Amino acid sequence: MDELKPTNENISWESHKVAKLKSLHITQFLEANKLQPVKGNLHCYTRVIRKKCTYCTLATCGSWDSKLFDRKGKVLLHREIISMGGPSPPYYTPLSKPTPTHFFKKPKLYSLAIVTILCSLSYLFGVWQHGGAATSPAATNLGATVPCFSTPQNTTTTKTQPISPPSTAAQLDFASHHSAEDGGAATLSPAVKSYPPCDIKYSEYTPCEDQQRSLKFDRDRLIYRERHCPEKNELLKCRVPAPAGYKNPFQWPLSRDLAWYANVPHKELTVEKAVQNWIRFEGDRFRFPGGGTMFPNGADAYIDDIGKLINLKDGSIRTAIDTVIEVIWMFFIRETLALPGTEGCGIYVASWGAYLLSRNIIAMSFAPRDTHEAQVQFALERGVPALIGVIASKRLPYPSRAFDMAHCSRCLIPWGQYDGAYLIEVDRVLRPGGYWILSGPPINWKKHWKGWQRSMDDLNAEQMQIENVTRSLCWKKLVEKNDIAIWQKPANHLKCKKFRNVVKNPAYTKLETCLTPLPEVSGNEEISGGGLEKWPKRLSSIPPRISRGTINGVTSETFQQDMELWKKRVTYYKTVNNQLGQAGRYRNILDMNAFLGGFAANLIDDPLWVMNLVPVEAKFNTLGVIYERGLIGTYQSWCEMDDIMLEMDRILRPEGSLIIRGDVDILVKVKKIADALNWDSRIVDHEDGPLEREKLLFAVKLYWTAPASADQQ
């Protein structure tokens, strides 16, 4: 609350004497009820009362809160009594402000009579205009709030996880006093859409990854497997159901090894790769033993082998990108390049990334939407970061110098072809000094060429192509041992003078074959762009992109303030939704406008991970900062979405939660959409109190699924 100063134009509850209160007709009420006012002990929990004001002062005070308290919390005046200056508004109107009038030093009876008559006429005219009987303003809507929990209107069986309000010593009303039914700003909005359920065939629908639409595009370089978003007239206007029988995933770390079959009802991989120990079907669930084509002893042992070649334990490697699940390249190589006997690729279900987490390394796995539709869904059900994507004709949606390590295990991507375009893209996203790890063909081809059913000449030519491209990138080959080869990107480009191109924002741009330059340095030992602290210190250290001033408008002070701000916000979030503070309740979290990653940074000690999204349209391109902190994320254009709320409903699990910050007028409208989507929602005050226009909407997507088929029943 702003401090009131005892001036002629302001009322101070602290310094003005009882005589001042008498002019406001309070003392008469206190005397009638045998209450004694104490100087300095009256506090009104409300917006500042400014400028000259007579009897309307108390009505203004009452319209912003419900009670008048003394210092010990005792209720002195109820809101109905305070409103003696005229009818108070029935609800909080955010655009309204106290109307300043004047305190007359010598009030006259005729002035008071004129004001009373005018107020009465205005009130009667308002009642007549609305065509209803007069009701007491104090009783009409003082307790009215946006309903916190709406009653489901469909016939689907639902269950909800309640959101707990913050507890305080005094039972204050934390609900927002904004109702869409009371003539406020919300009534000006258009009618809320209806959202019927989609057909069960859309339970795995992904808007820009439709297989039928993809067949219209060129198959060269797998362009048809890239994102191709639907036209406006093709967009679904219904709610995508979860599969019948959907269950909440196993909690981490158990989810690393188990997933419910009902959540991802696909058995294809369990049949095709039964002998490779990737995935097994056991009754009502899948088990992930962690095996793979190139590591029959499991992903954990495979990572230990890598750890014998480079240091995975000292915190210098924190972020990794895994192209290991690009199985679609197998079909392209077999059909287009006519290479016989090409088998499947890598770790379909992101086991490499899953087992790296125990080493404090977080990997971003990506895979296309191919014949095995559930690859990415398997990874997400396991609680492992993954995105649908393919390296084809467009740049990866990550900033330059983002990852400490890149990995490909039998991914069969033609690294040496197309003028080395794919390795050039890996070079762009690797940090200076970062590592590229390759296992599988053509590495160690002299031992495996017969099993791979390829000629020695062919495999040797493929490896020579890769070696030539890496040399052109100035990479150093550190080691090739058994089935693993590792290259390292240089710390700077002082000795690598190739044709270069600066990439400011790679999202949705074409892949190019020119080298992305590293920031300038003054010596051979200097790291381009600045060195990073080891994990976990790098999380709270000033990122080099900020300390070097490469992001206009974002300074070290901005970074520190953002850290403190999100520390406060996350603490508040956990008091409103106490499940956010329960270890294991949430695993996969999406921040739709991450800025500097402060939200994710303040959840780092919880058993969850955050996908930080930076909108392509954002004023500041800060995704590189997020990666320099040891966090992960991607670019996203929300302008692609015709209905963002409907898209949020699609990607949320049943009983998944939602937090939206925004201006109160916007949130009242959003609340209506949330109700139409059958979410359990409430609007709560800002963490700094009820006087802030910015509010928060907390919501839970109610449990509902597609109906069970005859076989399932």
UniProtKB/TrEMBL annotation:
InterPro entries (alphabetical): Put_SAM_MeTrfase, SAM-dependent_MTases_sf
Pfam families referenced in this protein's UniProt entry, alphabetically: Methyltransf_29
Source organism of the structure: Rehmannia glutinosa
Compartments where found: Endomembrane system; Membrane
Coiled coil region boundaries: none
PANTHER family: METHYLTRANSFERASE, SAM-DEPENDENT METHYLTRANSFERASE
Record EC number: 2.1.1.-
Topology of the protein relative to the lipid bilayer: Single-pass membrane protein; Single-pass type II membrane protein
Protein name: Methyltransferase
